[in-house]
Amino acid sequence: MSVIPTSIQERLSKGELISVIAQDVESREVLMIAWMNQEALTKTLETKQATYWSRSRNALWLKGESSGHFQEVKSVAYDCDSDAILLQIVQTGAACHTGERSCFHNRIELA
């Protein structure tokens, strides 16, 4: 079993949510951003399937549970401030609820 670093545990034990970036392990494409609480992170580390905290549903959310578009976690890293996690994943199907591969399919034109 993986050990959650103390710096992350401290934030989560205060009830804070940690932002999570899901990145394709091969292409390095950023697919989505979500949130984790302590339970979501523990489940993700134990099962190697991305599990998030849904702020709108106020509940755990196994990515792909209803869509079949699971995220197999290949590596986990956290940033220097212990407030963001990077999951490198193998994405089955689309990451975005709209059916797009990435949630970042909308573009802003630069002048």
From TrEMBL:
Gene3D superfamilies, A to Z: Phosphoribosyl-AMP cyclohydrolase
GO molecular function list: phosphoribosyl-AMP cyclohydrolase activity; phosphoribosyl-ATP diphosphatase activity
Domain Phosphoribosyl-AMP cyclohydrolase per the UniProt entry, residue ranges: 32-105
Enzyme class: hydrolase
Keyword set, alphabetical order: Amino-acid biosynthesis, Cytoplasm, Histidine biosynthesis, Hydrolase
EC numbers for this chain: 3.5.4.19
Pathway linked to the protein: Amino-acid biosynthesis; L-histidine biosynthesis; L-histidine from 5-phospho-alpha-D-ribose 1-diphosphate: step 3/9
Catalytic activity of the protein: 1-(5-phospho-beta-D-ribosyl)-5'-AMP + H2O = 1-(5-phospho-beta-D-ribosyl)-5-[(5-phospho-beta-D-ribosylamino)methylideneamino]imidazole-4-carboxamide
Native species: freshwater metagenome
Name of this chain's protein: Histidine biosynthesis bifunctional protein HisIE
GO BP terms in the entry: L-histidine biosynthetic process
Alphabetized HAMAP family for the sequence: HisI (MF_01021)
